[in-house]
Amino acid sequence: MLVSATEMLNKARDGHYAVGQFNINNLEWTKAILLTAQELNSPVILGVSEGAGKYMTGFKTVAAMVDSMVNDLGITVPVALHLDHGSYEGAKACIEAGFSSIMFDGSHYPIDENIAKTTELVELAHSKGLSIEAEVGAIGGEEDGVIGNGEVADPDECKRIASLGIDFLAAGIGNIHGKYPANWKGLDFEALDSIHNATDGIPLVLHGGTGIPADMIKKAISLGVSKINVNTECQLSFAAATRGYIEAGKDLEGKGFDPRKLLAPGVEAIKATVREKMELFGSVNKA
Ligand SMILES: [Zn+2]
């Protein structure tokens, strides 16, 4: 059964570790992440962007696949199915489709409009037992065509959004989606500390987890980050392993063209990345 992310993130905050959100793109991605979470006895959040949801043919298909897979694989660790960077309409669609958690990203709206829409969605999500993440201040990089500037969120705005009854908060602290540029200045820990102090202990979310050095991740966790989003890193590992298989000519040997063989190295690579992140985030054996 899918669960909301509230309890697992409150426990993470209290226990000074973070739960990974790993974005899924298809069946192989989902299976690899679920099996690794189970093996490591770690709670896990499966993230679905609106683009990935569309790619997988729709939110209902995604919810049905994940729900059935949790049952068929005998997964017993807590699993949340979470909409990543949801629009107002997308958030409503996922609540209907059977997701257990949503993010409403109203960071591109003026703050008052972000507050009005977040307030409405908090009520709707909670009435159906879902957890809800909201965002203040654009996070850098590009995700599904949304471009941010690596902005740092204003602690006062964070306080206003956090007080709406949301379950966890994404706030820009200089983090960026995708690969980090060579001239990246690093996370802004002063900003993180101010946001943490202004938001009354609400679990904070760090987006753009790919490529942030391990020591910065650990420091961020110590300053209140309880959820870390990983997307690009699994894509890079999958692509590299698949490239290796084909460049070695293995798809031309015997039945090496069978998709179950062709995709296997990529699946193993995703598992290794998820394992590495769960160990770094400290969520192993916290299910
Ligand atoms: Zn994000």
How would you concisely characterize the structure shown here?
This protein has 287 residues and is an alpha/beta fold. The protein has helices at residues 6-15, 27-40, 50-55, 59-72, 88-97, 111-127, 155-162, 189-198, 214-222, 232-247, 259-262, 264-281; strands spanning 19-23, 44-49, 79-86, 101-104, 131-136, 141-143, 146-148, 168-171, 204-206, 225-230.
3D architecture notes:
This protein has one domain: Aldolase class I (TIM Barrel, Alpha-Beta Barrel). The protein has 287 residues and is an alpha/beta fold. 47% of the residues lie in helices and 17% in strands. The strands form two sheets. It has an eight-stranded parallel beta barrel with strand order 1-2-3-4-5-8-9-10, surrounded by ten helices. It has helices at residues 6-15, 27-40, 50-55, 59-72, 88-97, 111-127, 155-162, 189-198, 214-222, 232-247, 259-262, 264-281, and strands at residues 19-23, 44-49, 79-86, 101-104, 131-136, 141-143, 146-148, 168-171, 204-206, 225-230. The longest helix has 18 residues, at 264-281. Bound molecules: zinc ion. Zinc ion is lined by residues 85, 139, 143, 177, 207, 229.
Keyphrases for this structure?
globular, 12 helices, eight-stranded parallel β-barrel, 10 strands, TIM Barrel, binds zinc ion, 47% helix, alpha/beta, two-stranded antiparallel sheet, 287 residues, single chain
